[in-house]
């Protein structure tokens, strides 16, 4: 059986599944339950400076969007950092780490963007025996209004500066958690590593309004007739997170640097995808908040089975394997020609491919009187929409034309690899020779 | 000692009142809101959907299901009612397993279709429960139309005509409107007086007057109607019952299944309704199934359906046959009644095995007897009280695609008219289409 033991920044955990800094990791009670359920590590919910703790709203903190059968697809929250006393948290962290030495315990921190503030808290955290810290530069709501969270994460210079302070006043690994509420994720990542951070983790939540109550004419969740934007997470954000992880993994300035992947990870497969793009481990929150801590058991068994099937002995064997295949559009092979093919045996004749193609694409599917659907190769641009809307998995597939075959749509012979950089329509094309 | 299923003869109160009440509660529970949304989500929103093609009234099924999914069952109901004003009853009685649900692509894909019938019921019940009528009448046209028969065809015709601005008088020889919806459907398919509530809701359009106790041969003459109205629609159904042509048919205890079903539907107290200990139903259609199941539910000890051909030829669907079997009804096939024995009242039925020879059904000569203290005839109904002058084809009033009879100004639809299957939903479609044609004829314009 595959060994799921993961070493991230020298921190060993029995599996790559950590709980992200969030409500599930706010207290000793929850974290002990998480470890008993099998989680490999936790990032303790963000601690703030010594003094009166923050307060949370006393109305609803979460909003959601749902799919069929009320499956939770996206969650948004307006909860702030821990609202418990700093020393209570520190004592609990110490006890938990002492009792679970084989699990990773990382402490998330958010204090004002002043050297003194960091200098004050870091030794206290160091004393707990936790394995490292994560700098919360991501929360987009509430704390950002006070110059913390994403307000720091959106300014690369601040990231670099704080990372430097942390490396100065703390001896263990420093992870910088990035906000996705920024136009180009590579800049804050570069700043974090330039400041000496050991790793970045991403993504934090996305600024969002999940829904509007049309009776009250107010965004949800409603707090006495008002709503505030919150941080969006859950399965719906996974594609955004994957792209950001890949951007950092393939940026020449940060390629190969440690990344902890976060964003909508719900199953072992999601986790494997993040890791394939370069994440050394993953952090999970919404899946646990939706289904409870037990979900990790499926993640462990699923990842383990898949690794066995693929012959991977440890997670290091496949981490980052897909990153070199993330490419700029201009390098995609324009001579890769495919045509949709419909398996008539599998077809249930719903006609969704026809409606999609006829109404919104290239009129490349024919429908007969008796509802037989067939692809018109001379019109098919291989867009894949029919594959995506077909309710039967595997019914419509894409067949690749061999080199030398004639594409019935263009009348041209399929040639060898050639991309936009050398295409005659490209004003900046370089000669192919 | 009180009466039990084993008490000989035809007896009331074979089962305790609470058992009867349980037996006759709704066959299918209505969907709750969440159940409906989950069921609706299974719909693929097919292009040119096969379910819609399979529906005799061409309801836009994918659209109404999507309207349910997005939390607007009232809009879904309007989509249904715009094609089928009796969509509420059709949701209860349609053999969906032979129509929309058989055509559903998920039936092909996984043998489990979208629950179109139950979803239709969810949508229509939502609107009918509010007593909201979703349509308004056009400006009065000054035209008057007589509709004879307040069954599904007549009501659908009347509603569409009223909507177009015509004045409609609907006559029915029974004491209540509704036709087979009121008198001809198994009680467990339409509970809580739904047929009557549906009629009252339908009349919410306005412009329709119902006159009960009047029909052709019961105070009305076609010629007189033609004189006092601009058009006449006949939705008179099939008033007669085919005879068994078996020896002893006149004995006490030999009854029409149709009357039994009607009596049961109207019975204020099911315990007062007598039923035999050994019941035999002759026939293979829905009427036979309804009579047989309800006999069992009333407490008959043994109920047998005797059908002259194989199960595959039965008019009742596989679902209905299974339902009967699940209620303890025995279905005998390839047998036909020869004689009814008994001293005054029937005590035994003598059946002969049949075989098909060169496409013709013949008795094999081998007979057997079953105890029978009550025998229901459910071997088809016949057209009665047809005014002279109307052309008849195959035992029904001959009509065109749009319901025109051979007599100008007279339309017909539903079970009494040629073409289509004898289903509620078909009758609705025919009544509706005839109304459109009547409107065109009266107004001299299309549409």
From TrEMBL, chain A:
Membrane-crossing segments per the record: none
Residue ranges occupied by any 4Fe-4S ferredoxin-type domain in the UniProt entry: 338-370, 371-401
Coiled coil regions in record: none
Signal peptide location: none
Gene3D superfamilies from the UniProt entry: 3.30.70.20, Aldolase class I (3.20.20.70)
Top-level taxonomic group: Bacteria
Keyword line: Iron, Iron-sulfur, Metal-binding, Oxidoreductase
GO cellular component: cytoplasm
Catalysis: reaction(s): 5,6-dihydrouracil + NAD(+) = uracil + NADH + H(+); 5,6-dihydrothymine + NAD(+) = thymine + NADH + H(+)
PROSITE patterns per the UniProt record, alphabetical: 4FE4S_FER_1, 4FE4S_FER_2
The protein's Enzyme Commission number: 1.3.1.1
Keyword set includes Amino-acid biosynthesis: no
Entry-linked Pfam families: DHO_dh, Fer4_21
Record-level Gene Ontology MF annotations: dihydropyrimidine dehydrogenase (NAD+) activity; iron-sulfur cluster binding; metal ion binding
Similarity-based family: Belongs to the dihydropyrimidine dehydrogenase family.
UniProt function note: Involved in pyrimidine base degradation. Catalyzes physiologically the reduction of uracil to 5,6-dihydrouracil (DHU) by using NADH as a specific cosubstrate. It also catalyzes the reverse reaction and the reduction of thymine to 5,6-dihydrothymine (DHT).
Assembly: Heterotetramer of 2 PreA and 2 PreT subunits.
Protein name: dihydrouracil dehydrogenase (NAD(+))
UniProtKB/TrEMBL annotation, chain B:
InterPro entries for this protein: DPD_II, FAD/NAD-bd_sf, FAD/NAD-binding_dom, Helical_ferredxn
Domain Dihydroprymidine dehydrogenase, first and last residues per copy: 22-130
Gene Ontology molecular function: any one: oxidoreductase activity
Domain FAD/NAD(P)-binding: 144-431
Matches recorded under Pfam families: Fer4_20, Pyr_redox_2
PANTHER family with a match to the protein in the record: GLUTAMATE SYNTHASE [NADPH] SMALL CHAIN, GLUTAMATE SYNTHASE [NADPH] SMALL CHAIN-RELATED
Name of the protein in question: NAD(P)-binding protein
Native source species: Pseudooceanicola albus
